[in-house]
Amino acid sequence: MIPDIFATVFRVAAILGYHNVFISIYENGSNDQTKALLRIFDSLTRAVGLRVTIRSSHRTRGAFNHRIEYLAEVRNAALVPLHELRDAEGETFDSVIFMNDILPCVDDLLELIWQSRRQNAGITCAADYMFHEEIGAPVFYDNWVARDINGTALENAPFEAVFHHPDSSQRYQHHLPIQVQSCWNGIAILDPEPIYRPPHVKFRMAKLVEGECSASECSLVGNDYWATGYGRIIMVPRVKLAYDKVGIHISCALSFTNLVCSVYSTSSIPLGATSPPSAATHVWVVSLMTHVPTRKTVLGSARMTACLSKKRVKSSTSSLVPSTSGAGGGTELETLTGRMSTPSGRRCPTEQRCPRP
Q1: Which of 122, 254, 277 lies closest to 175, judged by CA?
Q2: How far apart are the first and last CA of the chain?
Q3: Helix (H) / strand (E) containing 41
Q4: Are 126 and 119 a contacting pair, CB within 8 Å?
Q5: CA of 319: how far to CAs of 42, 88, 89, 335, 341, in Å?
Q6: How far is Cα 72 from Cα 76, in angstroms, rounded to an integer?
Q7: What are phi and psi of 82, to 5 degrees?
């Protein structure tokens, strides 16, 4: 898993320019070959002029630590160098990209970067799938975080039955970007303005004493983006991600973005774009190599973050932006019924609307 993600980062960095990329890796609690892989990665990145910082810690989740509190702490630790660089050198970034333990194609990441800027989104995510042995097909995976515009959880179901919201379901089946309440789904791109500026949004656990629903730190950061006026949260279903070798062949075959998981050349561009993401003048990559206790525990799992500089206007409540598709033809993006106002919130009236950890 880690070598696959490193390979993707190298290829994306080659497109954006090695000199435009900064990598920060936070590792803790790994008891496999993670540290050895990091030493190799450190040497390779420096050889091509790719800036890299690797920090290790013996901190692990204690017996009495809340799972979400621990995960939030780890994610925030990975973002520390982002603030340090701003404070020391005045360098700020345009986008923060978190990559979970998925197997991404290069064009997956480039497409999401393109869509996040095209849509001027607060958060942009992909769609992730796991192969379901019983039905012999991939099903949507991360419905713990993903919620439609009404706040209803998406289904662990095949492609045509993921959304309950009719308009969103139609767009999903046509591979069109969708306004949602929250999502993460393997890769999520965040506008860092709410992180840089007051109230300085960060990953956290729920405020249970205030009656807030117990939820993922990734769900809660979406709530906080809504609260700060950055609630333009977009899912891009044409980018389909997988967590295993079986799923990746299926997801790449289904995806308009990656008909074949091929290596991008420096002349390649994401679908819907006329050139590579030229606005990416600086890229910040943060990786978490940690023993993260999740429903699917992966020792030494990697979660990555990339930050790209170039100021962008604060997310608005305007309609989704039209763009011409490269592979499917026709118009890629359309208006989603104008439902861009803040959803009703996540007070957990039922378990379906807000499953607990």
Answers
A1: 254
A2: 25
A3: helix 34-47
A4: no
A5: 43, 38, 37, 5, 11
A6: 6
A7: -60, -45
CA 212 to chain centre: 24
Whole-angstrom Cα distance, residue 237 to residue 240? 6
User: Which of 261, 308, 322 has the alpha carbon at shortest distance from 103?
Assistant: 261
Task: Render each residue's pLDDT in the chain as its tens digit; 357 residues.
Answer: 788 888 998 898 899 888 777 777 888 878 888 889 999 999 999 999 988 888 888 877 876 688 999 999 989 988 998 899 899 999 888 888 888 888 888 989 899 989 998 999 999 999 999 888 888 888 999 999 999 999 999 999 988 899 999 999 999 999 999 999 999 999 999 999 999 999 999 999 999 999 998 999 999 999 999 999 999 999 999 999 988 765 555 555 554 443 333 322 222 333 334 344 544 446 566 666 554 443 332 222 333 344 343 333 343 334 565 443 333 332 333 333 233 333 433 334 333 333 333
In the three-class reduction of DSSP (H, G, I as helix; E, B as strand; rest coil), residue 269 is classed as coil
Contact 146, 185 (CB under 8 A): yes
3-state DSSP percent of the chain in helix, strand and coil, to 5: 30, 20, 50
187: helix, strand or coil: strand
| Whole-structure pTM value | 0.77
Cα–Cα distance for residue pair 227/313, rounded to 1 Å: 17
d(CA 171, CA 66): 37
Cα angle: 58, vertex 62, 67; to 5 degrees = 110
Question: Which single residue is written with the structure tokens 């305007």?
Answer: 318
- In our burial notation (b when 16+ CB lie closer than 10 A, e otherwise), range 158-188 reads ebeebbebebbbebbeebbbbbbbbbbbbbb
Q: Return the SS3 of 67.
A: helix
Residue with tokens 């033809």: 329
CB of 288 within 8 A of CB of 74?
A: yes
Contact 185, 126 (CB under 8 A): yes
Closest residue by Cα to residue 127 from 113, 135, 139? 139
How far apart (Å, rounded) are the C-alpha atoms in residues 202 and 12? 26
